[in-house]
From TrEMBL:
Domain called Smf/DprA SLOG: residue spans: 86-295
Bias kind Low complexity: ranges: 329-358
Protein family membership: Belongs to the DprA/Smf family.
Region (Disordered): 306-359
PANTHER family, A to Z: PROTEIN SMF
Name used for this protein in its record: DNA protecting protein DprA
Annotated DprA winged helix domain residues: 356-414
GO BP: DNA-mediated transformation
UniProt biased composition (Polar residues): 313-326
Segments forming a coiled coil: none
Amino acid sequence: MHTLPATDIELAAWLRLALAPGLKPGALRLLLGAFGLPEAIFEQAPEALAEIAGAAAASAALAPTGPDFDAQLDAVIAWREQPGNQVVTLDDPAYPPALLTMPDPPPLLYIKGRLNLLHTRAVALVGSRSATPQGVEDAERFARELSVAGVTVVSGLALGIDGAAHRGGLQGIGGTVAVIGTGADLVYPAAHHALARQIAVQGAILSEWPLGTPARAAHFPQRNRLIAGLVSGVVIVEAAMRSGSLITARLANEMGRDIFALPGSIHAPLSRGCHRIIKQGAKLVETPDEVLEELGFARQAAPRAASGSAHATFSNRAFSRNTPTGSGAAADRAQLAALQPTEASPAVSAEAPLAAATPCPPANPEAQRLLAALGHSPTTLEILATRTEMEDADLQTALLQLELAGHVTMLPGGRFMRASHG
């Protein structure tokens, strides 16, 4: 490694651990708790590390860096020097305190924009990427009123509800944070380039992924755990029965966060997921004031609406602060852990022009099976689940892989169809 200033040497040590293949954040936190800073970990014998975090973690932590590590480090240092960019390590006082309550906080965070927004009271607002016009309107209104009340709105920069949440959050003093599933130097989806630039100036963009990391299906559940970790509560606006937003809700509940959901028509596919988690004990909310009241966030300079009984809780609810590890959450965690990262179409740089790509046949057998079950007429998740007999998490991941690769088109109302060139 070339000669570096002391601060960059410390960053290099953190980066080495963050990039170590097979070293999970939970195991790394155990090692840091036992030995202190990364440099001290590198000085230990493998047996000492294995005693704390297991043989696999010890081997991963002490593995030599790859041939391109110096180039990666130079890229991180250069990115950090750009205005508005920051790299925050786990031992930094600037590290978001809410994430420290997680069992597996990332060792490195790449942040663009206002770091102070990661130290404020916050609420996540998430939902379907194929949102209805009413859902988009509700999401933006909730986000705007929460932000006006001084609450930071956190979401995932996806199409649909996420984008509406960010737009609403930008309209108030609370601002908005976008947690993304790519490197912080990329924007996905491409349609949100302008929104991402605005968030980088007025809000904050946060990623745990190394610079240059493209959009991959397995990254989005990982991103969702950070969304859940940053906030006091999660609001689901629209979600189908097999929506990824429900996974976010379960991860949030596992961390002791409150879960809220907006009700809808019993005939609407995108209301079914919300109704499902309400039945399981999530709080039904109809106004932003109900969210503020439940979380104990006083609205500033505005009267609080009467909330009535819409947000009443149930004694045996599945979503309970007193039940941090429900069986549903554990099952979802197990499903997510079994998913293998599959490379999809790369995200594009915020400055790069958009270019059309010819999709390659999906390599994943489950994605192939799902593509075979898709016709050229709109099909719901429930029908696809019946045709393929796939588990919820596997179905969601395969659909996202196919969409990223250009094989599947998502339609309003939570429906999917084979893309015209597929």
